[in-house]
Amino acid sequence: MGFHEVRFPANLSFGSVGGPQRYTDVVTLANGFEERNTPWKHSRRRYDAGVGMRSLDDIETLIAFFEARQGQIFGFRWKDWADYKSGGALREPLYDDQVIAVGDDLTAQFQLIKTYRSGDYTYARPVTKPVRGSVRIGLGDDEQQESIHYEVDIETGLVTFGHPPNEGVRITAGYEFDVPVRFDTDRIQTSIASFQAGDAPSVPVVEIRV
After folding, report:
1. Can you name the residues that pair with 7 across neighbouring β-strands?
2. CA 5, CA 77: separation in Å to the nearest integer?
3. pLDDT, mean of residues 41-47
4. pLDDT tens digits for 185-203?
């Protein structure tokens, strides 16, 4: 699968609409009860990039980006302004925002994750496209230094330590991240007249597995 490590212009994704989608099979039984199942382990996000278009220059930028990705062929990075940090939306990431694993004296490589909590229930989302220069890693209560204690692959979200962390030590992380997506259409339809009248084009974008 082709993927370009380039981000859709963040000023154009700002103001877009979208969010997570789940797929659920619901079967109503004869007694009125339901059985609910899903083949998806992880949610899939969808957005409409057209809502963020504000000028004819924006349309020109969109068309150039679309053509360079060859429509749906190549994936790209997308900044979800509603959810792009490991911690609070109004502060910079901290090295202890997320617990991503616990050391076992054997494993040296770990996937970045973001855990969503509601009451006693959680969902761990893999983070595969961290933003370069934003990742901070901690062991226990101590922040580690990139290139000295660990390396980060910004194309996969994998963190690799020089030595496996000790057993029982919490491995924590803070970061900004993008969503891997592709265009969910093979054509962009624009009208200068309708756009000037306030009618933005529809540009569907969908998350992909990488």
Report:
1. 77
2. 7
3. 96
4. 999 887 766 556 556 678 9
